[in-house]
Fold this protein.
Amino acid sequence: MDLKLTKASIFRRWPIAVILACVVFVVWSTALIASAHRLQRRQDANVQLVRNLSSVEEILHQLSNMAPLPQGRRPIEKEYSQIRQEIDRNPIYGLVRDLMPRVDAGVIEMSAIQHRMQYPDVSPVALLELKRALEAQADIAVGAAGEGLGRAREDEASVSRALAGRLDQMDVLVVICCALTALLVVLFAQRRRAARALRESVSLVNATLEATTDGILVVDLQRRITGYNRRFLELWRIPPSVAVEGDNSKLVEFVASQLADPEEFRQDVERAYLEPAAETHDTLRFRDGRVFERCRRPQRIGEEILGTVRSFRDITEREKAVEALRLMESIVVNANDGVLLTSMDTANREFTVFFANAAFTRELGYEKDEILGKNAISLYSPDVDLAEVQRLASLVARKEPCRGELLLRSKDGSEIWAEMSFVPVAGPSGGYLIVIGRNVDERKKMEHELRKLSRALEQCPVSVVITDLEGRIEYVNPKFTELTGYTQDEVRGQTSRILKSGDTSPDEYRQLWETIRTGEWSGYFHNRKKNGDLFWEAARICPIRDSRGVPTHYLAVKEDITERRRIEEALAQAKESAEAANRAKSEFLANMSHEIRTPMNGVIGFTQLTLQTPLTDDQRDYLETVESSGHALLRIINDILDFSKIEAGHLEMEREPFSLRETLEGAVSTVAPEAMGKGLDLSWDIEPAVPDALLGDSTRLRQVLLNLLGNAVKFTARGFIRAEVSAETVSGGTAVLHFAVKDSGIGIPPAQQQTIFEPFRQADGSTTRKYGGTGLGLAISSRLAQHMRGRIWVESEVGRGSTFHATACFGVAATASETAPERGERLDPDHPCLHVLVAEDDPISRTLASTALAHQGHKVITAANGVEALWLLEQRQFDLVLMDVQMPQMDGLEATARIRKREARLGGHVQIVAMTAHAMKGDRERCLAAGMDDYISKPLDMGQLLAMVAKIALAGSEDGALSKEHS
Ligand code: ADP
């Protein structure tokens, strides 16, 4: 700092009075001393004068004595002239000088006289005269000298007085002088001390200001620089020459260019001049990024403002540090990892939380206030690994940073795995502990999963191979090494070609690679082990994709199927033979049923025909027994056939529109005669919510209902039988219906309630004899219910009755076309008769059908095969052809095809109804495809046959298509 400390500045503060007094005193004392000096000189002159005049008087006396001058004595003139010269030389002898000519004259006269007197030739008279003249002259001169002496003495006296006065004054002067001197000495000492103190403080200030890192500038109100320190010049990069000039305006211009906003700076400087008393504190930003802190304070003496003091501090680094700190704080506050700051008292295990960032509180479900002040140890789960805690605690106690994985407990009690880092920081009273925690719950779970998966892979009973996208093996599991005999190291980096046996064609490999690039491939490999053995593998290969769906590896899972393949091959052979046997069995069953039914048809049909002829009562009884036995036998045969069809998987369910009410009514009315015969109360009910128009296999439903109703009638001696239908669900075009058939019969013991649904099982061996039956009915019903996506079960109490439940699923017919066809109309005896051609090779069936139709008034002509039938059709017109399917020479299918072909040429359409004992899958379709209109199965049910013919007759009469006249 260039602070100027001058004498003037020091003395400026001396009192003016003292200075004035000093001046006055000096002037006065000088005048006094000069005056005293003059007086003293005059006094001295006077003394000398008196002495000289006394000498002159003495000389004059000597002269006047006229005595010769003693020998050795100098002549008087000489002495006198010396005195006279002295008097003349001394200017202050003025007071006697005007007397001296008279003395001189007297002396000269006297000298002359005396001189003459000394001459021997002078007469005594003359001598006397001379002596008188001498005395007269002496008197004159002495008188004059005496007068001068008197004056001199007077003057000496007055001078002495004056001198005495002066001396008195000089005494006062000395006293004053002493006092003043003392005062001056005191003041001077004080001033010296003050000046020293001032210098000391100035040097202190200077040293301090030079020692400070702030730049200081002092500017007076006239814009002159009155002070600055070196740091100021350094900070602002000002050459000393600019500062030395002392013009602040130049300085401002010099520095303004460095600032980011020079104009603002200039305005600010101007404001400082306008408001010198203001104290400001702000920051200045530089173009080059520096930042200064600026303080401005007025420079005052008392109330007077001399200028302003500005201090500048380079806070660039501090700003950066603050910015960095702010960033750090923001990082900590917003970090994804939880951060805690705790006190550290390892001895008492006290780690009091005084900071927790949002991530920490969020993870543990606390509010910030709840976690602050807590001991961090309380955040551990009770199940935390204590050994790990101990290990970390001892490292923390040794002030070593450490990390570990610990189980924490959140506020709601749930547990969280966290990876915790502990950083002890030195500080007063134990220091601090920085705790950084990261939720690794997911990772832990994944690790757990990974361990599980890896164990699964290790223990997997099939080979697992992971390859890169080029097919190079990266991993094989132990099963692979066990199977192939290669070690992990032997196969790693190799391709699967290592196992190649050469049996798989390159084409297959190409196809494999093409497939797995986009999806999964599965197939078989015939591979070679390390020891050369061949083995079969069933393999599935698929790409392993990353989170974006990009394939990164391939995974092959392979199972050694050598043994299985061997068994399969054996099985395939066995199956083939079994299927052959099964086919033979089915054929056998079909043939048998055909073979048994055909004669049965004859037995029953002719029994029925015979019953229509006149008979004795006994004959009628026997024949009726024959008929019912025949029906019973047919039922048994049908059951066995049905069951074997179901078991062989040949059962096909229809899906056709039908009326539920009609189906139920039909079943109920079938058992009605027998029930009424036993005096049972038979009733049925359909809940209103149950849709009537359904899609499904009504025949099979009827079969189930008939079986349940038939059993109920069979096992109930008195009481009631009731059939109920309710809807379990009806939605989306599907109805699940619940059928219940209740009776008050004998009931079934609990032990048998399951077994009765198995084939050939009856509740009690003894019932078989009493009630009859094959034990197949419920087994068939239960399988049919399953085919209708339902089930059958029973609730029963011995002696009180049983309820058989069945459920089944049907479509709900939505459109008019899907309504059930009318069926079962009774034959009207008045309707017009039909011309019917019965084409049937079996004479019994042929006769049976033709007799039955003839009984109804129809005109029947028969043919024994397809060729005959065609010929007859060419000869005359028929309304209906009953066409057997299996016939010699030309079967029914071919005959029908030819008929239709001919009709296509000539027009017309004869109704053709197929008759076939092949109640097997596909029969109906084949018949309809050949051009037949309907289908009736053999053995012929006469009722069914007649009903069908009646229906055709009715339809024909309505549209007038029946042949009116046949030749
Ligand atoms: P089947 O009646 O031909 O013997 P099912 O399979 O129809 O064969 O019936 C098996 C057995 O279940 C019957 O023999 C009978 O013991 C018992 N059973 C069936 N229905 C009833 C019923 N409603 N009341 C009592 N027992 C019944």
User: Anything to note?
Assistant: The radius of gyration is 79 Å. The chain has a mean pLDDT of 82.
